[in-house]
Amino acid sequence: MNCESSLKLENGKYMIRDIDILGLCKKYGTPLYVYDAAKISEQIALFRRAFKGIDLKIKFAAKSLSNINILKLMKKEGIGLDTVSLQEIQFGLQAGFSPEEIVYTPNIEYFSEIIKAAEMGVSINIENLSNLEKFGKEFGNRIPCCIRLNPNIIAEAEREKVSNWHNQSKFGISLFQFDKLEKLVEKYHLRINGIHIHSSHAIMTTEIFLKGAKIIFDLAKKFPDLEYFDFGGGIKVADFEGENVIDIVELGAEFKVVFDEFCAEYGRKLQLWFEPGRFLVGESGYLLTEVVVRKTNGDVEFAGVDSGFNHLIRPMMYGAFHEIVNISKPNGIKQKYSVVGNLCEIDDFGRDRMLNEVSEGDILMIKNAGAYGFVMSSNYNARFRPPEILIINEEAELIRKRETMEDLLRNQIEIEI
Ligand code: LLP
């Protein structure tokens, strides 16, 4: 399930909610990011359905797609926000969230940032003993805080870079230091109102999730002031049709049983928080790019496009798979191509992909690009970052314009050389 793109082929044209995608490329040029608001709303509804019967608070992980209009859409949908920097908190406030709806879950943060976030009135999440001690000294029990634990589940992840539950990962307070944590809580009378764990999507299965939850539930009994558990993000969506990913409805049903048991034992109904990023916005986003050069080197057929890892870094950084479709040739004969970007180094979007016959001028659509796409883009090779379009209420709205030379030079200071 979970892999239901809203892209449709109708009368030879690729459409998203009645918007002709090639038409958008003509109007705004390429490369271009396009997001489908209705898909985001559907994912939110699915998330809520999966955890029905539980006091659920969804906090959208702003880091995955932080355009202010996406945040406004989240606010309108009645969900909260997960932020990892003071700037993301400010984005949230600008989008209309109240501080109470925002959680701040930074990593390797200055303590001064925690103070500022506390002054702003957002929920505080602390992930290391050093800052927890400073928090105790500064606030004692005047302000509650949530602690992020690292439950030391050895990740069977293929991608070490994002396996946060590993006991050597930098995230969270290690369970091996739990006695130190307890001493700090006692010494400063800390009011621990939440326990947080976040697992990487690379290891997420219902089994691993429940294993983590049980470890946390056991420890939670030591904290009498709990109001919520925060299980972070990491719920994966399928990278391609048929990929076997976690079934959120099944996860919700199985989780409810152990959660209800825990609450009964704890003596109080707690809230359940999640911080999904990719689950909500991943499939809603597409990167559109034009084929600039077709070339053959050795026995490889290259489709060289007007984008690169400066616009979508996931394939090069994580070896992530993004499905690619030639939307200019719905009926072209399938052939094998390597789709490569225009940066002056190895810059692959996908190797050996079967695509409908590709010619220069065709538009390729890179799917599942809503999460960690634009937000991780850069100006490498002095290229402009693409515009972003939001399809909402049957209209395609420009929500970020393409950069210009002025943007590239804005912060440079020319000196006499
Ligand atoms: N909460 C915390 C504390 C996190 O660290 C993250 C992501 C999330 C929530 C949201 O996770 P999601 O539901 O989106 O998986 N750039 C990488 C992903 C890094 C994720 C970092 N933390 C990628 O492109 O795959």
The distinct bound ligands, ions and cofactors come out as:
ligand LLP
The CATH class assignment of the largest domain is Alpha Beta
Number of domains: 2
Q: What's the helix count? A: 12
Helix and strand content put the structural class at: alpha/beta
Please summarize the sheet with the most strands: 9 strands, mixed
* End-to-end distance: 60 Å
Helix content percent band? 25-40%
Total strands: the figure is 21
Could you characterize the architecture of this molecule?
By secondary structure, this protein is α/β, with parallel strands linked by helices. It folds into 2 domains: 7-36 and 283-409, Beta Barrel (Lyase, Ornithine Decarboxylase, Chain A, domain 1), CATH 2.40.37.10; 105-276, Alanine racemase (TIM Barrel). The protein contains 12 helices and 21 strands. The protein has helices at 21-28, 37-50, 68-76, 86-94, 111-120, 129-139, 178-187, 206-220, 248-266, 278-281, 314-318, 405-409; strands at residues 7-10, 13-16, 19-20, 32-36, 56-61, 80-83, 102-104, 123-126, 145-150, 173-174, 192-196, 228-230, 271-274, 285-297, 300-305, 324-326, 334-340, 348-356, 363-366, 388-392, 395-400. Strands 4, 14, 15, 16, 17, 18, 19, 20 and 21 form a 9-stranded mixed sheet that branches. β5, α3 (68-76) and β6 (80-83) form a beta-alpha-beta unit. α2 crosses α9, α6 (129-139) runs parallel beside α7 (178-187) and α8 (206-220) packs parallel to α9. The chain is globular, with a radius of gyration of 23 Å. Mean pLDDT is 93; it is low at 154-161. The protein binds ligand LLP. Residues 61, 64, 82, 105, 162, 198, 201, 232-235, 275-279, 314, 318, 371-372 line the site of ligand LLP. Ligand LLP is lined by residues 61, 64, 82, 105, 162, 198, 201, 232-235, 275-279, 314, 318, 371-372.
